[in-house]
Automatic annotation (TrEMBL):
Membrane topology per record: Multi-pass membrane protein
FAD-binding FR-type domain span: 201-302
Cofactors named for this entry: [2Fe-2S] cluster
CDD domains tied to this protein: FNR_like_3
Protein name: Ferric reductase
InterPro entries in UniProt: FAD-bd_8 (IPR013112), FAD-bd_FR_type (IPR017927), Fe3_Rdtase_TM_dom (IPR013130), Flavoprot_Pyr_Nucl_cyt_Rdtase (IPR001709), FNR_nucleotide-bd (IPR039261), MRET (IPR050415), OxRdtase_FAD/NAD-bd (IPR001433), Riboflavin_synthase-like_b-brl (IPR017938)
Record key words, sorted: Membrane, Transmembrane, Transmembrane helix
Location of this chain's protein in the cell: Membrane
GO (cellular component) term, any one: membrane
Gene Ontology MF, one: oxidoreductase activity
Record keyword Iron-sulfur present: no
Transmembrane annotation, as ranges: 33-58, 79-99, 111-133, 145-165, 177-196
């Protein structure tokens, strides 16, 4: 997986550098001071990175499938902040180098230009602040997505217009056309994501077949296809779900599939009550229209490749692992399995009865870990750490693969502990999708 990930990363870097390369190939008539040129280059680099960001956030299944959409979106978040800082550094560097560049923001010189560039700068600041502190300021995820996408689009279009009009590096028609094309192509993918994809989803509707309460303040939603063959997916993958009469909705949420991959016409996901949307799931009526986008994710074990598979789950992070175990049971997989399942208490252990039953159908070693165990509990207690993993798991070897899903603190500790035990990063898979825990 690592070599392919490096190839995708290399492709990203090349695409992001193209606007800068176009500018450098053009020979301006007038040489300028170093800091002025640096400020201009920061602007071209920021424009390129932001344009490619629109491509990687489109949830295109062909884009870096080996990396997984959860990891891709984490990458987008970090690089996106870097790109916004590049855009901010562009005017700051130019103004510090030559204060007369402040005239670009002076409405007395050109009111349209001044207002547009000022709004771009303000938009960059808003995007960075809401990306870092959305939960702290209480901005709902749905409205943040609209704000984030709209402002990012405005910044890219505004940046492109600014680069074309200043024309120090884009004076020629060919250069202008090349730069515009390179930036507008990702915008085409954005149109596909926001408009054409929901239209395609309308041809494959689903409906809620049943809802079922689960332990741990969780609910299972079972879906059935309406007029089509269902969804082919791999165990461990996730989908984006919209409930309602139209796929053009702000209420779109990611959920791991919990059902067996052997039943594409009877899929299910399980969610814990963690926010406003998941709080409504117990009251969803059978027959409710649903729309599905996916499947996504590289959190998929290969029982033919791995000699042993270790699964570590915390709380509702058990859901993709249930899909893995249910699928393996249906397929008669005999690969040795180890599951460490951490919960606050015994009553919050979702699927605990079915997990016990699965130990009779699979070569599965099941280890419950409780923070607040009941009286006379003889199992593991406390938190998942290196000492517990050393005590409970088999010795690491090159044919052992690890899969971790749960709250971020558990995943951080488990990843560090497994690496300390000698596990290779190429054999360690994490379903690190923070939207599971933040609405």
């Amino acid at each position: 997986m690592i070599p392919r990930a490096l190839l995708w990363l290399s492709a990203y870097v090349v695409l992001a550098l193209i606007p800068l390369g176009v500018a450098l190939v053009h020979q301006p008539a007038e040489a300028r001071a170093f800091w002025v040129e640096l400020g201009a280059m920061l602007g071209f680099l920021g424009l390129g990175v932001l344009a490619v960001q629109m491509l990687i956030t489109g949830r295109h299944r062909w884009f870096a499938p080996e990396i997984g959409l959860d990891n891709t979106l984490q990458f987008h978040r970090q690089v996106g902040i870097f790109a916004m800082l590049l855009v901010l550094a562009h005017p700051v560097t130019l103004i510090l180098a030559e204060p007369e560049n402040l005239t670009y923001l002076d409405p007395r010189e050109d009111i349209l230009r001044a207002v547009s560039l000022t709004l771009v700068v303000i938009s960059v600041i808003i995007v960075v602040c809401t990306s870092l502190w959305r939960v702290t300021i209480g901005l709902p995820n749905e409205w943040w997505r609209v704000l984030h996408g709209g402002l990012a689009l405005f910044i890219v279009i505004g940046g492109l217009g600014h680069a074309l009009m200043v024309d120090h590096y884009t004076a020629g028609a060919a250069t202008k056309g090349m730069l515009a094309g390179l930036v507008l192509i990702p915008l085409g993918f954005l149109v596909d994501t926001r408009l054409l994809r929901p239209l395609r989803m309308r041809r494959r509707p689903w409906r809620v077949a049943a809802t079922q309460p689960e332990r741990g303040d969780s609910t299972t939603i079972r879906l059935e296809p309406v007029g089509h063959e269902g969804l082919v997916f791999a165990p461990g993958q996730f989908i984006w779900v919209t409930l309602g009469e139209t796929p053009f909705s702000l209420q779109q949420h990611p959920f791991s599939l919990a059902s067996s991959a052997t039943e594409p016409q009877a899929i299910a996901f399980t969610a814990k009550r963690l926010g406003d949307f998941t709080a409504t799931l117990p009251s969803v009526e059978p027959g409710t229209r649903a729309w599905i986008e996916g499947p996504y994710g590289a959190f998929v074990p290969d029982s033919d490749r791995a000699g042993t598979i270790v699964l570590i789950a915390g709380g509702i992070g058990i859901t993709p692992i249930m899909s893995i175990l249910r699928t393996f049971a249906e397929r008669g997989v005999r690969t040795p399995l180890w599951l460490i399942y951490a919960n606050e208490d015994w009553e919050s252990a979702t699927f605990r009865e079915e997990l016990d039953a699965l130990t009779n159908r699979l070569p599965l070693q099941l280890i419950h870990v409780l923070d607040s165990p009941p009286e006379h509990w003889s199992g593991e207690t406390g938190f998942v750490d290196e000492e517990l993993l050393e005590r409970c798991l088999p010795a690491d070897s090159k044919d052992v693969e690890y899969f971790i899903c749960g709250p971020p603190p558990l995943m951080d500790v488990a990843e560090k502990a497994l690496l300390s035990r000698g596990a290779s990063p190429t054999r360690l898979y994490s379903d690190r999708f923070d939207l599971y825990y933040k609405e």
